[in-house]
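During the first year of the project, the team set up a workflow for recording each protein of interest as an amino acid sequence followed immediately by a discrete structure-token representation. This format lets reviewers and collaborators read both layers of information side by side without switching files. As required by the reporting guidelines, we include two representative entries from the current panel. The first entry is reproduced here exactly as it appears in our internal archive.
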Amino acid sequence: MPRRRDRRRYLVAAVIAAVLVAGMWWVTRPDAGTDRPQSRAPVTTSDPATPVKEKTKKPKKKPRTFNSRKHTDLPRELTSLDIPGLPGGSLSGDVPPLDLRITLTSRSPIGIVGWTIPTSPNNSSGRTTVSGGSWSLSTVVYGRPDYARVFLQAGATGDPITCTISVEGKVTERRATVGPYGRLMCQG
């Protein structure tokens, strides 16, 4: 048999939940934000010959967004989407594309590999299961260093998995797991 104190706690919790539900309903009701309540019934008159005018809701305005093509006061060089570098153009100028290669090697099967490459247009993130002892990914990146992160974990055998990240042929990161189930984040 529950004690009185427990009953009071349940009652207080139920009251708080009811207040929260009522508050959410009040905030999300259809006429929220207006000074007067809206009637859902059409406006009618006593004379049937008088035309009935129904209230119609105005369509919501779309949020304003910057569209460089509509702003003709900017120079053509700044409004063009044909600027080389990042897809879609950039107001910061030309950002050269760089070749990035991620290579994983091990004596044992590698297992699950995850990666994130934020500035890659076609391999920005992913996850794969590697059944063999080697795996690689090549892509194009833009911007400043620290282009990619690779996440992996060694298996029960403890055979090290070596991660190598190279940009334009130059190795920027080389790390290896240590011991059974060793985890690794490789960034370069």
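The second entry, processed by the same pipeline in the following quarter, appears below.
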Amino acid sequence: MILLNRRRALLSLGESITPNLPSDYQQVEYIEGTTGQFIATGVKIGTLSSPEVEVTMKSTGKYQGADVYALNGIYLGMPNIFQVGLALTSETTCRVTMNIGSGAIGVTDLDSSKFYTLYAKNGSQRVNGVEIGKANYAYNESDNVFYLFGRRDGNIIQSYNMQISKCKILDNGNLIRDYIPCYRKSDNVIGLYDLVENRFYTNQGTGIFVVGGDV
């Protein structure tokens, strides 16, 4: 009962649950999408009262003379946009790109070899805990879900090259997804295990994820 109450308290505070994967799953440093892979979280942003998304990620695309994006979320035209990601701006630099409703927020000239924790909610957008914007949430589309390793752009799912080491989704301060990168030991299938739902999310696109080292 004490453990259950602590778990409920953590959920209400929006804090991560201490990773405790089922015995058939091995936590890893990250999983990597190499174009074609994506995960639909099942979370319909437009139905949440106060959505918050936090993704720790690194872009793994190849710069070819123009910005190369790595985005998570939904893009259905303003104001129905809720996405967080990075864009490579050279072979060694990247920028943060976030769109929350009609507001576009970014930070430039970052080291593209590093992971960044991107956080977005109504009225506050942050990178590694530092606030970079105060865009207001205006999303009102209720039928589409939030994507990882890609985004819905109209009727098309676009996937991107990136590594994700953790992701949390909250509503009104309550944790509703807490994703841990891992693979299933019995068959080596790679994906994200959600500690809130106790559910394993695997690739819903083409190809396979690449896996980081065991943790």
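For the second entry, the following points were noted during internal review. The first strand starts at residue 25 and ends at 27. Helices lie at 2-13. Both points are flagged for discussion at the upcoming steering committee meeting.
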